[in-house]
Amino acid sequence: MRAVSRIAQARSRSGPELYAVLIIAGIALVAVGVASGDFWAILANARMICLSCIGIQ
Amino acid sequence: MTIHGKRSRRRTAIQIIAAAAANSGLPALKFCPYPGLNCYACPLASFACPMGSLQNFLSLRRFPFAIAGFFITIGATFGRAVCGWACPFGLFQDLLAGLGPRHKLVRSNRWTWMRYAVLIGLVVIGAFATGSPIFCKLCPAGTLGAGIPQVILRPSLRQMIGPLYWIKIGLLAALVLAAFFVKRPFCRFLCPLGAVYSPFNRVSLMRMRVDSSACTRCNACKGVCPVDIAIYEDPDSDACIRCLECTRCPAVSVSYGPTKSEYPLHTAGN
Hints:
A: 57 residues; mainly alpha; disordered N terminus; B: 270 residues; two-stranded antiparallel sheet
């Protein structure tokens, strides 16, 4: 239990956790995507049914 | 330790709700990718497929900022929990596993590297090099969710069925057969979306934790695991789908937050 506590203390002292940095970076990338119109491109692609993709020519 | 019951009914209920939400017939949400593998050509699809959207950007030679941010945010928060709780194709395989024999084949995860090969080879290089969504042309989730329903609902399409359709049906049939005897074969060995989320298991907010002083290494966790992992060997394994079935053992828990709690914070109930 002491070992776990030491690890926990060490982790809490080690500054921002990597997941927090990644979540912020992910949200920033989504924001860049919004600004560059990515979601319109996703919508335009999703509205079309790609018949060749489902094996229909 | 003993883990009673086959699987968490709560997880099954959440998987069904997630699958229903992903296929609720609200196309207005199609600007947003769904976190799990769900084909947007499904007649009832509400969201975009993340793999299809990623391939679309790559085939256009355009960097997928929003998709990359989406994957990083989901992965850094939950790791592969989407696979265990929200993927309709994962639910399909779980149900098939329940119909098959109790003792499954292929309990090793030695071939899980293949899903990275599918991600890099078919999804990234394939789409970028050919300008076409190569993985979609083989995706069994697409065959199940879109190929078969579209042909049933639109009789005019039946005359245009090509050889690829039958190849896709064959792949799906092989996977269905495999899923009776091997737990989640697609998720473990082939899914490129799982490969995207897998590395985040080691750094995500949601982490598995094993109390080594309480664990007897009885392998009860491996018995209930939908991907045949003994969680005490590596709680951060990239194969773990964070389904929390193993948290029914008191030695296993899940932690959220900057530090690991010494006590279980949550366990999956029946």
